[in-house]
């Protein structure tokens, strides 16, 4: 890990606030899910499904970052959730809330949107571990 932050990543208090916002989003997704009356095993079973968007990294770092960021940003999860409300489908709303929960979970633990330079370069900082 370099001594200077990755250009374009946040540090300090703003980074802590973004991680706290991730925790809030995760908690809110659980509340929305609970309101839909779905079985809890569904939340656990689907929480990590958005990580399928990492498959783009099998092709290249650039494509991987693009596809990962599509699956780990709010618009796609919002679209699913809105479609659920529009259609009156509690299951679709629940799936959208799980997707938001995944994003919140990732952000809470510091896994942000990716840069094309490396999977470990995110808007929340560099995930590289310091070498001893």
Short précis:
The protein is mostly helical.
**Number of distinct helices:** 5
If strands are numbered along the chain, what order do they take across the biggest sheet? 1-2-3
State Rg.
Answer: 16 Å
Determine the structural class based on helices, strands and strand pairing. Answer: mainly alpha
Q: How many domains, as an integer?
A: 1
Content of β-strand:
5-15%
What is the element string, with H for helices and E for strands?
Answer: HHHHHEEE
Q: How many strands in all?
A: 3
Give the overall shape. Answer: globular
Instruction: Estimate the helix proportion, in percent.
Output: 55-70%
Largest sheet: 3 strands, antiparallel
Low-pLDDT stretches are none
Give the overall average pLDDT: 91
Distance between the termini: 11 Å
